[in-house]
Amino acid sequence: MLLSGSEIKRQMALGNLVIDPFSEEQLNPNSYNLTLDREMQLYTAACLDVKQKNATRTILIPEEGIVLEPFELYLVRSREYTETHGFVPMVQGRSSLGRLGLSVHITSGFGDIGFCGNWTLQLLSVKPLRIYPGMKFCQIYYQELRGAESQSEYASEKYQGGKEIQASKSYLDFQDR
C-alpha cells in the first residue's frame, strides 16, 4: 500500500518517517518532492571498475545553474535528510524532468526499511540541460511492507547515515573473496 501525502505527514508526527527540512509546499497527494543540493560529483576515470574505489571530483552548482553534458554521469544528493522506519522508501524522477530527457536515480529507485541519510542520486541527461540548486528533482514515496521480515531494519553500513554524496562502494562486495 502506498502512503498518501496526509499519511506521510501523520507518520512523521508518529516518528516513523523523518524529512528534514520539511516544507508543506513539497508534499504531493502520494509523495514528497526532494530538492537538489549544491554539491555534485563526477568520476574522473574514463573506465570505471566495480572492484576498485573509483576517484571522483566535486563541483558546486552555482546559483545560475550548471549545464549537464549528455551521457555524463553526475552524482548528486538531496538537500533533505530522511529516515524511514516501518516503510519502504522509493525515489523516482519527476515526470517534468523526464520529459526534458533527464534520468534520475538510475536503476536503484528503492531503499530499505530503516535507511537514514541524504539520498545520493545519479543524473544522466540525453541532451544538454541546465539544472539549479534547490530545484525539485525527484519524489520520495513510501510503501508498507508485509510479512515477518518487515520488522527488520536496514542493517548494511555501506551507505547508512550518509549526509555527503556517496560514490559507488561496489568494491566492498569483493573484499571477502
Question: Which geometry do the CA atoms define?
Answer: globular
The computed structural class is mainly beta
Strand content: 35-45%
Mean pLDDT reading: 91
Kindly report how far apart the N and C termini lie.
39 Å
Residue stretches low in confidence (pLDDT < 50, at least 5 long) are none
Number of helices: 2
Give a short account of the largest sheet. 8 strands, antiparallel
Percentage of residues in helical conformation: under 10%
What does the radius of gyration come to? 17 Å
* SSE string, helices as H and strands as E: HEEEEEEHEEEE
Number of strands: 10
Architecture blueprint of SSEs:
Elements: H1 5-13, E1 17-20, E2 32-43, E3 56-60, E4 66-68, E5 74-84, E6 87-93, H2 95-98, E7 102-104, E8 116-125, E9 129-131, E10 136-144
Antiparallel strand pairs: 1-5, 2-3, 2-5, 2-10, 4-9, 5-8, 6-10, 7-8
Task: Outline the structure in words.
With 177 residues, the protein is mostly beta strands. The protein is 7% helix and 38% strand. It has helices at residues 5-13, 95-98; strands spanning 17-20, 32-43, 56-60, 66-68, 74-84, 87-93, 102-104, 116-125, 129-131, 136-144. The strands form two sheets. Strands 1, 2, 3, 5, 6, 7, 8 and 10 form an eight-stranded antiparallel sheet that branches.
